[in-house]
Amino acid sequence: MFVLLGALVACDDIPEDERFIYVKPAAVSRTVLIEDFTGQRCVNCPNATEAIEQIIEQYGDSAVIAVGIHSGPFAKNTNGTTLPLWTAEGDEYFNYWQVQEQPSGMVNRHAVSNYPSWAAQVYEDIQKTAPLSIELSIEETEASRSFYVNSRMMATDGNVSGKLQLWLVEDSIVSPQYMPDGKPMRDYVHNHVFRQSINGTWGEDVSIPEGETQVSKSSLDIGEAYNLNHLSVIAFVYNNTGVLQATKQKLILPPTP
After folding, report:
1. N or C: which terminus of the chain carries fewer CB neighbours within 10 A?
2. Rounded distance, CA 48 to CA 120, Å?
3. What CATH code would you report for 28-250?
4. Residues 1-17: what's their mean pLDDT?
5. Residue 17, pLDDT above cutoff 60
6. pLDDT digits over 212-222, tens only?
7. 6 Cβ partners below 8 Å, 6+ apart?
8. What is the value of pTM for the model shown?
9. Rounded CA Rg of the chain
10. Where are the alpha helices (DSSP H) in 26-145?
């Protein structure tokens, strides 16, 4: 009995700030985001798409995430009417980043550039670690075609401040595309097409001390025009230095065998 009491008293004598040793979180591999400003009337845009596919094939689709943002003059007909994959938000991004030509894009929100430079930019960024991790989980609600998107972010290297952006993208869309020979391909298959933002055009504020976690929950209602089986959610955190980390999650996972 006396031995036990002595042990408890001895623990109380240890200063509170010395009882725990802080362990820095493990380093996190960086996922690279490519934002491709494209359009269905852009004859050189299929070349940019091919360059993206080659980059993803080299590094894997968990290491490189692409978004095709149909915007600008080549996402519209010559009379100004919009083509099927154009979005108003896409045009807002196009104008904000002052895109001068298409195809053009950004790798991790660095300077807007043309596709021949993207592979080198991806190579440079993919060597780095990310200052945070992002985990996505998606749950269906009781309403039809309605979901909750849960984002769990943990700062792993320093304090993280910026914006969390959630986007909905769709694959396997069959819609016309002008090709490098100047002719339209009626049954062209468009992938990773930007459809809409989920948590506002520019996202929501995040501020996470190192070693701590921030959780965000957003509602998502899907229009009838989208194929649920081909949709994914992309999450990324960015600030004025660029994209800090990104991840992608299919909206509906295939059933477990």
Report:
1. C
2. 14
3. 2.60.40.10
4. 49
5. no
6. 999 999 999 99
7. none
8. 0.89
9. 22
10. 45-59, 88-96, 118-126
